[in-house]
Amino acid sequence: MKRLAKWRLISLFAILALILSGCGEPFLSTLQPAGEVADMQYGLMKLSTYIMVGVILVVMIIFVLVFFRFRRKDDKIPKQVEGSHKLEIIWTVIPILLLLILAVPTVAATFKLADVSKMDQKNTKALVINVRSHLYWWDFEYPGQKIVTSQELVVPTNEKVYFSLKSMDVKHAFWIPAVGGKMDTNTDNINKFWLEFDSKKADEAGNLFYGKCAELCGPSHALMDFKVKTMSRDQFDGWVKAMQNVKEPQKATTAAAQQGQEIFNKSCVGCHAVTQQPKPEAARLAPNLTNFGDRSRVAGILDHNKTEIKNWIRNPETYKPGNKMTGKYPEMSEDQLNALSEYLMGLKVQQ
């Protein structure tokens, strides 16, 4: 009875695992590819899985046939096949063929994904984004457009977007599960690769994909998220133009926001920029907030509203242990937090 109960429990877990394996959201799941890179990687995963399952099935079928057909019925020694050249050739050639079937498309895809020659061309027209990782946030610089944003990557759909990856402190890894990746961001060298965002899949995902740090980097590694906002090329060009026009801090439009701007200028502006005058990457101490009001998350993980802004400013250590914002400014009253959140929510470039 105990054995039967165990098998029932194992069967239940197996069924649940099978059901849950089909779950996934289009903005996050690697099993719902949303671009050329993700499609290639998903295809390779399926090919390797088919090969493995095929090998298991063949071995199991042979095992069952041999088990029942050649069961020992008497004391006679069966015919020995030791040293059979035919069998040795068969079980040597078959694995070689399977490896070739897997290796050829894998090598071809590797070379295709590694081709970043277009971004290295002088006066290239390709969209290049410099990704800089920090504890525990992301910095996105568009060198050709001379703009910088943080925590929310904005990209056009249906074209290759090239990335230059580097870390400003410890090793991280840049990964957008539904679109492709991942690749390490190192402190001593720059890694490069490209992604393509499919417009139809982006629509299914609400034009917002989730990005992750995929390298254990500290106590808030699991919270080092960023968001990827997708749009058409025309919309992207409009966003770029709007960002480029922010040369000076945006003026507060209400009395509360004006008070918040004064607080910001005293307590926050030393680390956070609110204009498009890109500093040297080493001097970017905290996320650029030029378009903070347009974003979808606070600190990459919290809902984008005034309540969560206040919660984050009040005690960032609660949400991201080990972050570098904790203790960098004086404690604020509720009125000051209300004013500051009002000002931050008004920092918009997409009117």
Mean pLDDT reading: 90
- The CATH architecture of the domain at 22-68 and 126-232 would be Sandwich
Give the end-to-end Cα distance, rounded to a whole number of Å: 68 Å
Q: Please tell me how large the radius of gyration is.
A: 27 Å
Give the beta-strand count. Answer: 12
Class derived from helix and strand content: alpha+beta
SSE pattern, N- to C-terminal: HHHHEEEEEEEEHEEHHEEHHH
What is the helical fraction, as a range of percent?
40-55%
Task: Count the DSSP helices.
Answer: 10
The CATH H-level superfamily of the domain at 22-68 and 126-232 is: Cupredoxins -  blue copper proteins
What is the CATH fold-level name of the domain at 22-68 and 126-232? Immunoglobulin-like
What topology, given as strand order, has the largest sheet?
Answer: 3-2-1-5-8
CATH class of the domain at 22-68 and 126-232: Mainly Beta
Which stretches are low in confidence, meaning pLDDT under 50 for 5 or more residues running?
none
Q: Which of globular, elongated, flat, extended, rod-shaped describes the shape?
A: elongated
Q: How much strand? A: 15-25%
Largest sheet, if any?
A: 5 strands, mixed
